[in-house]
Design goal:
- The structure is a single chain.
- This protein is an alpha/beta fold.
- The protein has 2 domains: 2-107 and 222-272, D-Maltodextrin-Binding Protein, domain 2, CATH 3.40.190; 110-214, D-Maltodextrin-Binding Protein, domain 2, CATH 3.40.190.10.
- Strands 1, 2, 3, 4, 5, 6 and 12 form a 7-stranded mixed β-sheet that branches.
- The protein contains 11 helices and 12 strands.
- Strand 8 (143-147), helix 6 and strand 9 form a beta-alpha-beta unit.
- It is 32% helix and 24% strand.
- The protein is globular, with a radius of gyration of 19 Å.
- The chain starts with a strand and ends with a helix.
Length: 274
């Protein structure tokens, strides 16, 4: 069983022990590339589809979905058992509070994304087609953005936190909001996953054309896992998921919602990932 729940403190939502199956609370990142605004002809909600697949195969648990920011997801994991997300990258802080599935989805990695025609950003792109962040450091007229609570690659983490840089940064709880700011000219560039340029613009200004450039020193792919809180319920969920996704057939079912948004070669790599 799966149900959507209003955004409430999880301590209110947790079931009384002994009276029901263990409850799993799936945190869906609101307004990110994983969740598009629901409207006519809007893209499928990837996280919803993946969670529905998982819950249909994890019948021994009860399930609910709650929308929240990336940062809130792991805060809840630290304080409540049975809290899970369908897509999360590792970092040191998350490893303290979460257990991760064994089989990763290797997403195309982080890119420098900007509107086509932004000359100063093209100057940061070398002839080999990769962006050199060093060329952006001392351009105070530029303003960049990234999503708070995401596990950025080490190079990007150091870049946005580097105290001597002259760049200004907007930190947003929502990746969708970053694209809106980029579209409206309030940001010059953002750091986001490669496929988000084909997904999120469909929820905003479809007339904007974006350039997505690999960043020198940033891995071409980002391993993403299912994550659950470190507790008896979370551990049981992860064990059940690991057993389920050992099957290549079930793995294909889990990653199927990504097919519409990834390039064929990237999707084939996701399907083949062990």
């Amino acid at each position: 069983m799966i149900a959507r729940t209003l955004l409430l403190p999880l301590s209110i939502l947790l079931p009384v022990a002994g009276f029901a199956a263990d409850m799993v609370t799936w945190m869906v990142p609101e307004q990110s590339a994983l969740v598009a605004a629901e409207r006519e002809n809007a893209p499928l909600r990837i996280a919803d589809e993946q969670v529905k697949f998982l819950t249909s195969h994890l019948a021994k648990f009860d399930h609910r979905m709650i929308e929240g920011s990336f940062a809130r997801n792991f805060h809840e994991m630290a304080h409540s058992d049975g809290v899970c997300v369908s897509a999360a990258a590792h970092n040191a802080e998350r490893d303290k509070v979460a257990l991760f599935s064994a089989r990763p989805v290797n997403y195309p990695g982080y890119r420098l994304i900007f509107k086509r025609g932004t000359a100063q950003l093209f100057e940061a792109v070398d002839p080999d087609g990769t962006a050199d962040l060093e060329k952006l450091y001392n351009q105070p007229e530029l303003r960049g953005g990234y999503t708070a609570g995401r596990a950025l690659p080490e190079l990007l983490e150091k870049f946005v936190e580097r105290p001597e840089r002259n760049l200004r940064f907007e930190k947003s709880l929502s990746t969708g909001r970053l694209f809106n700011l980029l579209s409206g000219g309030r940001l010059d560039f953002i750091f986001a996953l490669a496929y988000e340029t084909s997904y999120l613009p469909l929820t905003g200004d479809a007339g904007v054309s974006y350039v997505s450039v690999p960043i020198r020193g940033v891995p071409a792919r980002l391993p993403v896992f299912i994550a659950c809180s470190k507790g008896p319920v979370g551990a049981s969920v992860i064990a059940s998921i690991d057993e389920l996704l050992k099957s290549d057939e079930q793995w294909r079912g889990f990653v199927a919602p990504l097919q519409r948004w990834l390039d064929p070669a990237d999707y084939a790599a996701v399907v083949a990932q062990r």
